Amino acid sequence: MDNLKSIDFPNSPGIYKFLSSENKILYVGKSKNLKKRVKSYFQKEQNKKISNMIKETSSIDFVLSESEHDALLLENNLIKENKPKYNILLRDDKSFPYIAISKERFPKIYSTRKINHQKEDVFGPYTNVKSMRSILKLIKNLYKIRNCNYVLSSENIENKKFKVCLEYHLGNCKGACENMQEETEYLKDINEIKNILKGRTIELTNSLKKEMHLYSKNLNYEKAQEIKDKIFHIESFTSKSIVVNFKVNNLDVFGIMDDNNHYFINFMKVNNGMIISSETIKVKKKISFDYNEIGQILIDLKIKYGSMSNDTISNISLKKSLPDNLISIVPKVGDKKSLIDMSLKMFSFIRKIYIMKRRRGKQKKCLFLLI
Length: 371
Known about the structure:
By secondary structure, the protein is of the alpha/beta class. 41% of the residues lie in helices and 19% in strands. The two termini are 27 Å apart.
């Protein structure tokens, strides 16, 4: 345990991971100050579950983020991807919330902790309620989906069993209960919402742009403007973060820097616009630079994290290091350049820790992961 207490952490936002001796993730947490948060686990008497987790922990690693908001999103990504043991145990057996879409005529959208697959399609889980509410707020602003409990069967609507409620008069619903909205139009909105919940915003915005141009071509400028506003809100929502940025889609990120003796190589796997894996390794320099050796290290990292993407970005040209079937670019501007900047952000911190380790003459069990 003493070796864990002595690990160096920055006073920065990010996530931390408790790892077992088999390098399996036991717990993922977030903090706006990593140093203070991790240190708190060893400064006071903890409950039995936390004590057991610390006993199982062999090492602790961390991932720096640009902001506390990004830390929330990254924590959510990693818990979904890895389902750590203690993230479940330490929540006192409370289930994670989901966003559900009911399986009925004119479906409803709501959050739930109890899943019934026969009655609803579910998306999640969401480890952070704030993040889930942000998505629901976006959906409410973009789409007029009912929230009533009416059974909107064809028979009930034809018999005029219902009257529009306050939500209709407030503009939050189009009055399907009084047959003022076609079911096909409603289901089109539901399908667009499902694409947002699945992270398929690139495909959705491309489809909406084609639809917008078609309306504009037919001189229906009001409808074209409505769709343009929808595209703007979707893109604004997904561009708030580098950790979750659906404009980027699937690719591998390599940040490569060096000092006099070593190369530091950071790998980030981006899947459906979300950073789901990251690792930084240190490679001792040889007398002469070997493109093939560096290329093999990069391929090994891709294999280790199961990356199937042929798209690669880096801060240096990798054309001589990677196979011809892998597309490698060095971005100069935009979202991809931001990913590279984040990958390289921590180099000075890592180098500082590395020098401190050499001076102390001992190794600390800590993996440095960067974003």
